Amino acid sequence: MGVISALLGRLSDERTEYECRDCGSGFPRRRQVCPDCGGYRIERTEW
Ligand SMILES: [Zn+2]
């Protein structure tokens, strides 16, 4: 149970699973276009 709680806590903290390579903004979900800079280079971040 402790391990699961730790994982859930980590996931709730990790809200930037995807990141715009142009401006560096993070998003919890993949996006087609970056809302900040309009870039299309949104890729999954390295863990
Ligand atoms: Zn951007």
Written as H for each helix and E for each strand, in order along the chain, the element string is HEEE
Sheet with most strands: 3 strands, antiparallel
**Structural shape:** elongated
Number of domains: 1
Average predicted confidence as pLDDT: 83
- Percent helix among the residues? 25-40%
Structure overview:
This protein is α+β, with helices and mostly antiparallel strands. The protein has one domain (15-47). The chain has one helix at residues 2-13, and strands at residues 18-20, 26-27, 42-44. A three-stranded antiparallel sheet has the order 2-1-3, with no helix packed on it. A hairpin with a 5-residue loop joins β1 (18-20) and β2 (26-27). The radius of gyration is 13 Å and the shape is elongated. The model has no long low-confidence stretch (mean pLDDT 83). Residues 20, 22-23, 25, 34, 36-37, 39 line the site of zinc ion. Zinc ion is lined by residues 20, 22-23, 25, 34, 36-37, 39.
Q: How is the secondary structure organized here?
A:
Elements: H1 2-13, E1 18-20, E2 26-27, E3 42-44
Antiparallel strand pairs: 1-2, 1-3
This protein binds zinc ion.
Zinc ion binds at residues 20, 22-23, 25, 34, 36-37, 39.
